[in-house]
Write a structure and sequence with these properties.
Blueprint lengths: L2 E5 L4 H17 L2 E8 L3 E2 L6 E2 L2 H19 L8 E6 L2 H11 L4 E6 L4 H7 L2 H8 L4 E5 L9 E6 L11 H10 L2 E8 L3 E9 L8 E4 L3 E2 L6 H11 L4 E6 L4 H7 L2 H8 L4 E5 L5
Parallel strand pairs: 1-2, 1-6, 2-5, 6-7, 8-9, 8-13, 13-14
Antiparallel strand pairs: 3-4, 7-14, 9-10, 10-11, 10-12
Helix pairs in contact: 3-5, 7-9
Amino acid sequence: MKHILIATDFSPAARCATIYGIKLAAQLNAKVSLVSAYETLPIPVTNDPVILTVDDMQDVVMQQLTEEAELFALPGSAHIDVYSREGATAKAVLEVAKEWPADLIVTGMKEHGKEFRRLFGSAVTSLANKSNVPLLVIPEGTVYTAPTSIVIANDFMPKVEIGIPPFLRWLAQEVKSKLTVIRFLGSRAAEVIEISDYSSNLRRITGMISPLEELPNNGHASDMLINYLREHHSNLLAMPVRHQSLAERWLAGSPSREIIFETRVPFLLLPEDGWK
């Protein structure tokens, strides 16, 4: 990995993500950058709102980014570049990720207002749906620990070879992580596979298969996953992003979207192409 791009709006949740991303970059010997989006909005400094120009807003945001980079930079670490873009958050972040190729985007998830954002969307879910770059979501309040226990959740079919995405295999090797695959079998059960060898380039996984885990009575896979993560002290969950049609999302919901709003551990969303 060469470049980790951290998206921030300077909120407490974003600062958790910034600290996490910077420490992860140091562990992986990766370059790190900060990016923030801005829009021109009326600011009531007197009885008459004042509209800052685009240049004014850019100066303000760049100053904030510079201060943030200086505040959280690790001693002896490489310089942190900062970028600002006008427009909606997801669009701005993805523009920078393309212009200065990023291998991983890191963003925070605010605790307050989750239910509202679950209904009406958020910058994080927009990034998840649009990004072709792996996206790491850091829940507010997360304290950095190396991702030494990674759970991969997917709906691999029985008797079909399970492939570990190259990005995830590389991350596990660098951090010496334990890998566990949770493979959903229909709507009522899942099997748990502990990986014993993920170092080779072979797509076939050799591992130990545990007894089937039963899903909760409400049948939500997200609940089963969250319980498993908590009980096994896992510190990273990885899932693919499936680009469903709007109709499919309305009818069935998005598992990735549900997990984003429920999980208490960092959550790695990998584009579907990354699993090939």
